[in-house]
Amino acid sequence: MTDLVEHEARPAPPPAPPASLKSRHRSEAFARRLRARHAAERRFRLAGAAAVGLAALMLVLLLGSIVSKGYSAFWEARIRLEVTLDPAEVADRNYNALLRRALYAQFPQVTDRAGKRTLNDLLSSGAPYELEAMVVKDPAIVGTTRTLWVRADDEIDQLLKGHYRRDLPEAERGLSDAKVAAADALLASAALAQGFNTTLFTAGDSREPEQAGVGGAIVGSLLTLLVTMALSVPVGVAAAVYLEEFAPKTRWTDLIEVNINNLAAVPSIIFGLLGLAVFLGFFGMPRSAPLVGGLVMALMTLPVIIIASRVALKAVPPSIREAALGIGASPLQTVLHHVLPLAMPGILTGTIIGMARALGETAPLLMIGMVAFIVDVPHGLTDSATVLPVQIYMWADSPERAFTERTSAAILILLGFLILMNGLAVILRKMFERRW
Amino acid sequence: MTTRTHVFTAAALALALSGAAGAAQAQSRDQIRAVGSSTVFPFTTAVAEAFGKTGKFKTPVVESTGTGGGLKLFCAGVGPAHPDIANASRRIKKSEIDQCAANGVTTMTELKIGYDGIALASSKKAPPVALSTVLLWKALAKEVPVNGALVANPYKLWSDIDPSLPKAAIEVLGPPPTSGTRDTFNELVMLEGCRKLAEVAAAVPDDKARERACMTIREDGGYVEAGENDNLIVQKLGANPNAFGVFGYSYLDQNHDTLQAATMDGVALTAETVAAGRYELSRPLYIYVKNAHAGVIPGIREFIGEYTSERALGDDGYLVDKGLIPEPKALREAARVLAVNLTPLQF
User: Fold this and answer.
1) H or E element in which residue A260 lies
2) Sign of the C-alpha dihedral, residues A346, A348, A354, A356?
3) In which element (H, E) is residue B93 found?
4) What is the DSSP secondary structure assignment for residue B169, as one 8-state letter?
5) Which of A117, A304, B173, B255 is the least buried, fewest Cβ under 10 Å from its Cβ?
6) Could you say which residues from 329 to 368 on chain A have a Cβ atom under 8 Å away from some Cβ of chain B?
7) Residues 186-205 of A with CB under 8 A from B
8) Residue partners of A26: CB distance under 8 A and separation at least 6
9) Which residues pair with B173 in a beta bridge?
10) Chain B residues within 8 A of A174 when measuring between CB atoms
11) A208 contact residues in B (CB cutoff 8 A)
12) Quick check: B285 and B114 in contact, CB under 8 A?
């Protein structure tokens, strides 16, 4: 009797017990037990809150470190030049000379070869190509003088962002005094400034940090995910529907179920080895292709999708099926018209989480050659391509210090995509969810 | 029943179609493919990019697979499915050449692109240190000779080995056994340092056993395997001024403001000492080109031309900016002529 009452007693603050029971609850033992249980409750809540707090702290530390290192990569240094587009030089495609002439004009005192070489190094080696693209896009500008903001070399960019220590002597700084002086002179005449770094989003990989971007990797990731989705969703959902709704419960289906659960836990590198042996070795598909990457990822995400879909199908109450069958629907109609639509939110959530996992995967791609230096942005499923996490891995391993911030920026972009996908999963679930 | 069948058919069709497309693609290739050493990777990628910018050919695809893995892929056969170029941080081995020949890769061109120096660097916060291969071997070997017999390495502090060295715990951060840098480190430091000690030869007369004893690195915390990422080692050195790091010259070159390299037997690590062959811990870097692919895969000769051009490999070339130490000019010229003519490697 006491036990029952004790269960009903609410945790802090304990409400005053009803008058009729009061006498029973005044015993010393009861008060002690109640205090002990309240203390246990408080301890448990505190431990839980501490766990959440610790996880949040780690997340803040991780994000804080990535954001603080990476945010500066979204800006890049540009140099203002008054470029005269001399038709003769343009015809020779000698854009480098045009840019250099404009730069020398800002430093009339520099006449010696060494000094000019220092000035040449201020500009990105990609600047002439930028100018060429501009001329190809709008040939009318040939023969005019234009004020252009041309991309600066990554060393100047890093100097502007304070990643070089100006107080150190020249030999230790890694950047010559002459370059620092030239950059300062440009800054003084407002001809050196930072602008938004669009290259980071549009360009493919490059060995020159200021010309490197994740554009190629994003397209590669999208192509890979496209193949993955096109294969794993229909096959996965069909397999789940068959296993859950149609297959007889025999030893064979049990065996298949165990195997599916096992496959979901297989390390992803194994799928890469499988891809290497089957898709590259047996079918002779090209290395580094998003098609092969997508196939491998599809194999990897299939078990995840099957398991999530089966759970979603199982959660549909049997009354739905019975009602459908009861008014004369065939088993297939029951599944397609009633059960599957109701299970869709769960299936979608599982699929998107599986896709998000595939988006963050690098290990299986190592084996099929997608961990590679690829400059050209891929245009098709069989073009050589790499993916976002691989790009991050490769930049993290590059010695140039300007890649440090770009690595963090690429991580932020990948995190952005993951948040987008997981957010979509939440929204879809909220939109279609039914409660019984 | 029909809808489900449709789904299955569609999936099967997609698989078959994509397979056919892939097979068709593998028949021809208009893009050079290179594989191999992670040490040569930054140089070959830089050349690939410059080559791609000339606009005549597609930018080559370069994979970083390690020297051994790369040569294995390179030697797997002739045809568009196999890479055209292998990057190597050591010379190709006899066994690999045999493997190549067995798969039909009978002629290849060897190009020595230059050298990489291995740095033993520490934070600038610590005083500069003069090391030698013998000292390093004594610091890192699992067993060292004491009174004529090999015993478990008793040295805990650098000053235990030589009183002139700092009174700091021995802690060297280096690459794991899978790395090419580690192979070179084993060969140039562990084996060479050990050979210079007469006591080891006296204690272990058997050649094979001695070599094993020489190459075994201590496991009690003196040597820390810091992973393949050299940037990580650079960061850790900043946090721990007593530690030394083992990595390639290009990382030292990029981090002169925070790191200093120890001198090795009195020779400082600079591009000049490596090129002159005076700095001991250096290794030659190679690329291998499959001759059978020249003329089949477009641009191979032109790519070699770009690689050996003065604007890449010269004293002011862009590869030097990336940390490569080129050979002297006369040797470069000779190597260029051989490479551009695809003169086969003679075994």
Assistant:
1) helix A251-264
2) negative
3) none
4) B
5) A117
6) 332, 336
7) none
8) none
9) B224, B245
10) 253-257
11) 49
12) yes
Helix (H, G, I), strand (E, B) or coil at A79: strand
In degrees and rounded to multiples of 5, residue A189 shows phi and psi of -95, 15
Report all structural domains of chain B as residue ranges with CATH numbers, in order of start.
32-116+283-340 (3.40.190.10), 117-282 (3.40.190.10)
- Closest of A114, A226, A97 to residue A177, by C-alpha: A114
pLDDT, tens digit, for every residue of B138-165? Answer: 899 888 888 878 888 888 898 888 888 8
All residues at 6 or more sequence positions from A411 whose CB lies less than 8 Å from its CB, including other chains: A66, A70, A392
- Please give, rounded to a whole number of angstroms, the shortest distance from the CA of A161 to a CA of chain B: 16
The reply to whether residue B23 touches residue A382, judged by beta carbons under 8 angstroms, is no
Place of tokens 């220590």: A165
pLDDT digits (tens, 9 = 90+) for A15-41: 665 555 556 667 888 889 999 999 999
Q: Rounded to whole angstroms, how far apart are CA atoms A209 and A406?
A: 8
Question: Residue A343 — pLDDT band, cuts 50, 70, 90?
Answer: very high
Test B38 with A397 for CB contact under 8 angstroms: yes
Torsion-angle region of A86 (φ positive above 0: left; ψ -120 to 50: alpha; else: beta): beta
Distance CA(B84)–CA(A396), nearest Å, equals 27
Alpha carbons A213 and A204: distance in angstroms, whole number: 5
Residues in a beta bridge with B345: none
In the block, residue with structure tokens 């002779």: A284
The pLDDT value given to residue B20: 46
Which residues fall within 8 angstroms of residue B151, CB to CB, at 6 or more apart?
B143, B144, B145
CB A342 within 8 A of CB A320: yes
Please write the tens of the pLDDT for every residue from B180-232: 778 888 888 888 888 888 888 888 888 888 888 888 888 888 898 887 677 88
Interface contact B341, partner A, CB < 8 A: no
Q: Is the peptide bond before B60 cis (omega within 30 degrees of 0)?
A: no
Q: Which residue of B has its CA nearest to A155?
A: B254
Stretch (H or E) spanning B150:
strand B149-152
Residue B186: how many other CB atoms lie within 10 Å = 16
If you count DSSP H runs as helices and E runs as strands, how many of each does chain B have, helices first?
17, 13
H/E element holding A151? strand A145-151
Distance CA A238, CA B10 (A): 12
CB contacts of B53 in chain A (<8 Å) are 129
Q: For residue A198, what are its two tokens?
A: 């669009």
